[in-house]
Write a structure and sequence with these properties.
2 domains, 3-stranded antiparallel β-sheet, about 20% helix, 4-stranded mixed β-sheet
Length: about 375
């Protein structure tokens, strides 16, 4: 039995000491002069680097890709990249060789073999340059001129450049940068580009109607991202003024990074988007677990230093005097939103209860 506060804190220190998973994906940002010459360049670059660090911490595919980031004066965000039309059978074989996660293995179990893709029955599929690199098919493309995998354009004039001060009448730079980066890496539907090619992109392999049948049409409003046709993870956008590879986002909805139409003032983080990248070859890994490395008391205030923080992660410090309680019954005594991977610090004001025989603390990632 623990009968003093110092011992309780020491228990948590040991219990939460985890090792961060190895990181393999590397994204090198190439800053265009439109960003470096911007008076807010430091803030813009810091926010985009937060997005990059998040992806580097969550994907294990051992590749390095360069992405150029630049500003534009209209619209909200845009992505540019090269894609190549390759034999479906070769793509499928590479996907099978690269399937290291449960999501990827499960998704593959619902993809038929053979020479022809299951979307339109053709023998070919379109694949982004970065996705080809992730699958080891580097003989097909080196990306755009200059050796970049793609380009992300951002209208920063209508965006909140950080999440420190949020103007509800502006859009979130972090999530827009993530949205366009997702598209450089892989996410797109051929329904956007039928005039040039009717062959699907990898994301189209996971496009189902609500009855479980495959769908490859811009008509109607019945298309979902799903690994098996049964568990419908999110609805695809079917409106012509939006991207058919994005999520449905008209009317009441949960704002997501890959929404076709962004929500003013919202700050979504990648979720289902991670699964979409995982099943096309990027090898999703669990987030690094935070570990408490130092605890200091000052009166009733508790300062806690930790490691393995995840960029864009929101961490909660939970407290309880009863270690046996389920975590959803612990009290939240402090919150910290991180701007970079690595070490971080919490200060929980008036978190220490002098009348308690012992107290326990745990970190929880949102």
């Amino acid at each position: 039995m623990i009968d003093n506060l110092d011992s309780a804190l020491w228990l948590v220190l040991i219990f939460l000491a985890f090792t961060a998973p190895a990181r393999a994906l590397v994204i090198i940002p190439v800053w265009d002069a439109t960003i470096t010459d911007d008076p807010n360049a430091a803030t813009i670059e810091r926010t985009i680097n937060m997005a990059i660090q998040f992806y580097e911490a969550r994907f294990a595919v051992p590749i390095t890709v360069s992405i150029q980031y630049q500003e534009m004066s209209s619209g909200l965000g845009e992505s540019q990249y090269e894609y190549v039309n390759i034999p479906y059978s070769q793509f499928l074989a590479a996907l099978q060789n690269n399937a290291t996660t449960s999501n990827a293995s499960y998704a593959l179990s619902h993809l038929p073999g053979g020479q022809n893709n299951p979307v339109n029955g053709d023998a070919f599929i379109n694949v982004h340059a970065a996705n080809l690199q992730a699958l080891g098919l580097t003989q097909y493309s080196s990306g755009l001129p200059g050796g970049i995998a793609g380009r992300v354009l951002l209208n920063t004039s209508i965006m909140n450049l950080s999440r420190t001060n949020i103007d509800p009448a502006k859009y979130d730079l972090l999530s827009v940068a993530e949205h366009e980066t997702d598209e450089v890496l892989a996410l797109e539907s051929a329904l956007n580009n039928l005039a040039n090619s009717d062959d699907p992109f990898p994301q189209d392999l996971f496009r189902y109607a609500s009855d479980g049948s495959r769908t490859f049409t811009a008509s109607g409003d019945d298309a979902y991202f799903s690994l098996d046709g049964t568990n419908l993870l999110v609805q695809f956008n079917q409106r012509a003024n939006g991207d058919y590879g994005d999520w449905w986002s008209v009317g009441p909805h949960i704002p997501r990074v890959q929404d076709a139409f962004a929500t003013l003032g919202a700050t979504p983080n990648p979720n289902i988007e991670l699964i979409a990248l995982d099943v096309v070859g990027y090898q999703l890994i669990p987030p690094p677990r935070p570990g408490i490395v130092q605890i200091a008391l000052s009166g009733s205030n508790l300062t806690l230093s930790a490691t393995n923080g995840l960029s864009t992660g929101v961490y909660y410090l939970l407290a309880s005097t009863n270690l046996a309680l389920p975590l959803n019954q612990w009290s939240s005594v402090a919150t910290n939103a991180l701007s970079a991977n690595g070490d971080f610090t919490f200060t929980a004001t008036n978190a220490v209860k002098s009348q308690a025989a012992c107290q326990f603390y745990v970190l929880q990632l949102q």
